[in-house]
Amino acid sequence: MTEFLDLLGALLVFAGSIFCLAAAVGIVRFPDVLTRLHAATKPQVFGLLLILSGVALTLRTWHVVVLAVFTVGLQILTAPVSGHMMARTAYRTDQWDDQHASIDELADDLEAAGFRNTTDDDGGLVAGRDHLV
Amino acid sequence: MTEPEPVRARRFRWQPRQIAVLALVWLVLVGEVNLVTVVGGIALGVLVTVVFPLPPIGWPGRPRVWGTLRLLFHLVKDLAVASVRLAIFAFGRSIPTPGIVRIDLRSDVDLYQVNTAELVSVVPGTIVVDARRRSRTLYLHVFDLPDTDLRDQVVHDTLALESRVVHALGSRAEMDALDHPQDRDDPEFKEVT
User: What sections of the protein cross the membrane (chain B) (predicted)?
Assistant: First the structure.
């Protein structure tokens, strides 16, 4: 039984590290801030979840289990918050790749509300209302 | 972008539950239970609630065990699916076609909107770019949306997630309202670009 748990734990740690690697590769390879944020939030959190499950299965003490649950829970709660703040800033400063985007309903609504979110040719921001109610 | 909170946070409010949870977290972090760590945990809890006062969250429902378990199950499943998809993209050659989609939530409570926004960032392929409180709208950046028909799928998934959040936290009346939408069937389905 202990061998089985050790093996399972090792496999989980391995799988988790693959996902963390995928997150890192994604951050390097994806084209713009917003797509990179996807890589930074999801596979990273899932990789950590797998690694901590593996560690908990290997060490098998209650303290480690509770600590792992806390860590994963806080990751799931905090990663989207920082991701959202980055995404919002990136969008408002036009740091995202809208050439390849299929639809952008936020731009439509922002325009209707009087906010222009376009850059001029030099990449500088065109003056607009800087916040939206 | 939200209007100022009508309920103001009172700095020196006594919050026994929050302090207890914070003390518990402290005990887990320290890893041993004795008089010093318990008293220290409570002291830290008081300190945190005084230094970072938060407005009370009012909502008409209550936490539900079964709904929460279902929410967590779907959360882990979605996280796995999202991670596998992103890993394939990370190692693969294809370039994603992003899109930004507007979602009008059906529930009207801060807590549900926040939780939906949090969890939707974990659901396959979406990140919250912007959120509006007054109209309960979320704007999601979808990682790969090559076909605008997939937009309906994103809307559907997000509303299903919202429904799970309400089932985990909401009141009976709110659940029924979400389960049986009688008068309107999601107006946003009509205005596909």
Answer: 21-52
With residue A76 as reference, give the H or E element that holds it: helix A62-92
C-beta atoms of A103 and B101 within 8 A:
yes
Number of Cβ within a 10 Å radius of residue B179:
10
Residue B174, helix vs strand vs coil: helix
Cβ–Cβ of B127/A83 closer than 8 Å? yes
Q: Could you give the number of structural domains in chain B?
A: 2
For residues B42 and B69, membership in a common domain is answered with: no
Say yes or no: A71 contacts chain B, CB-CB below 8 A: no
Same domain assignment for residues B114 and B166: yes
pTM of the model: 0.77
Last residue of a domain, one of B37, B56, B75: B56
Q: What is the pLDDT of residues A2-14, one digit of tens each?
A: 888 899 999 999 9
Checking ipTM against 0.90, whether it exceeds it is no
Largest CA distance in chain B: 63
Q: Say if residue B99's pLDDT is above 50.
A: yes
Kind plus residue range of the DSSP H or E element containing A26 = helix A2-29
Same domain, A24 and A56: yes
Structure tokens at B138: 């979320």
Please state, for a pLDDT cut of 90, what percent of chain B lies above it: 6
